[in-house]
Design brief:
By secondary structure, the protein is mostly helical. It folds into 3 domains: 99 residues, Serine Threonine Protein Phosphatase 5, Tetratricopeptide repeat; 46 residues, no CATH class; 69 residues, Serine Threonine Protein Phosphatase 5, Tetratricopeptide repeat, CATH 1.25.40. Helices cover 76% and strands 2% of the residues. The chain is built from 13 helices and 2 strands; from the N terminus they run ααααααββααααααα. Strands 1-2 form a two-stranded antiparallel sheet. A hairpin with a 2-residue loop joins β1 and β2. α5 packs antiparallel against α6. The chain is globular, with a radius of gyration of 19 Å. It starts with a helix and ends with a helix.
């Protein structure tokens, strides 16, 4: 049975809060191996490796986080700390300097501040969604994506809510953007297929789902989607 990356990440954060850094790393490694990791996943995995005394692995994860989000403040700081420990002082100073600059604004705010606010709005959206209040949940996640336009996980979550609310075209638009920027985000690709199907584009859905199955053959959900298509048109 496949476990969603969101569930693995949630479990990893729980293990991290309990200072079980080995357990945290184990869970996040599964997310990374599946090609479904975001910058914050790489960052948390890097912190876990650092606390486990694995600086080279930690540095690699911080680099991967920064490749996805070059203005990731915490990743810049932790990268600098690891580089300092490794005796690479000039590189460490450069990393700290980038963190201090905080150049670039998002929604009129420094990038790191906008990112924090985006995550707060996303948390509020999740609370609304758990209560079945889809409209305010969608509103909060829409704000979150404006504050964090480079956070594909937020757009993916927004698209899921839009589909649940019957707003298939809006969901499709968000998912097209996600898979364009993160082509290996297979959960988003599978959901894009569903958005295409529900918006009346069965051939487009089939193409996406076949691509998903070719890259992740064990995905029972995608197999079920393709079986649904084979039973005939909507």
């Amino acid at each position: 049975m496949n476990v969603s990356p969101e569930h693995l990440i949630h479990q990893a954060r729980e293990r991290f809060a309990l200072q079980d850094y080995r357990g945290t790393a184990f869970l996040l490694e599964e997310v990374v191996t599946g090609g479904r990791a975001f910058a914050d996943v790489h960052h948390l995995l890097g912190v876990s490796y650092s606390l486990l005394g694995l600086p080279d692995r930690a540095l690699d994860q911080f680099e991967r986080a920064l490749a996805l989000n070059p203005r990731y403040l915490e990743a810049l700081i932790h990268r600098g700390m690891i580089l300092m420990d490794l005796g690479r002082r000039e590189e460490a100073d450069a990393s700290f300097q980038l963190a201090q600059q905080g150049d670039g604004l998002t929604a009129g705010l420094p990038a790191h501040a906008a990112g924090r606010l985006a995550n707060l709005h996303a948390a509020v959206a999740e609370a609304y969604a758990e209560l079945g209040a889809l409209d305010p949940a969608i509103e909060q996640l829409t704000i979150a994506t404006r504050l964090g336009p480079k956070f594909p996980d937020l757009r993916y979550r927004l698209a899921r809510l839009l589909l649940e609310a019957g707003q298939t075209l809006e969901a499709r638009e968000e998912l097209e953007l996600v898979v364009r920027t993160r082509p290996n985000f297979l959960d988003a690709l599978a959901l894009l297929g569903l958005a295409r199907y529900l918006s009346g584009d069965a051939p487009g859905a089939e193409a996406v789902w076949k691509d998903c199955l070719a890259r992740r053959p064990e995905d029972a959900r995608v197999e079920a989607y393709l079986a649904m298509l084979s039973r005939g048109p909507r």
